[in-house]
Amino acid sequence: MQLLENMEHLYLSGNRLEYFPPVVLTLRKLKTLHLGGNYIDSCPSNISVLTSLTVLYFGGNRLREIPASIGTLENLENLGLCDNILETIPSTLGDLNWLETLSLHNNKLRTLPTDILNLRRLQQLSLRNNPLVHSFVHNMDLCPPSLKELTGRIVRQNMTPEMVEYIPTDIIEYLNSACQCVNPECKGVYFDARVEHVKFVDFCGKYRVPLMQFLCSARCSAGIPSVPYDTSSESEEEIEPIMRRVLLG
C-alpha cells in the first residue's frame, strides 16, 4: 500500500484490526481515513504526518486516549471518536480551527478541556452517554423553599418604596438579596431555594452550548411562568437574573 502515493480516501471500517496500520502513515495525500468498528486501542502520535486529512473516523474501537499531536492536523473538518473508552481528550483539539463536527458520544468522559470553546467553526458536538452528561443533568436537586423564603418572595414581589420605612433593616437586606428568575415571562424571585435547569443556546451562531439557568420554580423550567407579569402594571425595579455557562464538565 505504501506505493499508493496518490491515494486520498481510505476506508478500513468494520474489520478486525487490532492496531493502527503503520503503512497508512506513508500515504501523505490522504484526505479521508475511516478506521471505525475495529479493535484498535491506540492512535499513534505521529499521525500528525497526515496533514491533508479532513475526515478522521475512529468510532467503535477501544481507544483509551488520543495523542496531543492530533491537534496539528490543521485541515481536519470531521473527527469521530465516539463509541470508545476515552476518559479525557487533549486540549490541543482546540487548535483544529477548521473542525466542524466532533463526535464524542458513548465514551467515559468526565471532563472537557475549555479549549473546545476555541473551535469557532464547530457545528456539531455530540456528547451523549458520557458520565459528564449523566452527572451534570441528573444530580440537580431542588431544595423545598422554607417559610421564610416563601414569605420573602411574596413581600419582595409586591414591595413598594413606601413599605421600606416600616420594615426592619435586616429584613430589607434579606429582601434585597433576591435573585430574578431567568424565565423572561416570569417576575418571580428566589433567595436560597431554586430550580437548576439546563438550556442549550447558540454560541457564536456556530454550535450549541449548555447553560445552567436558575429558576424560581419547576413550572418555569417548562416555560410556564410561576409569577406572570401584569402587562398593565407600571415598570418595576429590575433584579439582575443569573445564568451561568456550563460546559458539561
UniProtKB/TrEMBL annotation:
Keywords: Leucine-rich repeat, Repeat
UniProt keyword Repeat, yes or no: yes
UniProt xrefs under SUPFAM superfamilies: L domain-like
Pfam family, one: LRR_8
Protein's name according to its UniProt entry: Leucine-rich repeat-containing protein 58
Source species: Caenorhabditis briggsae
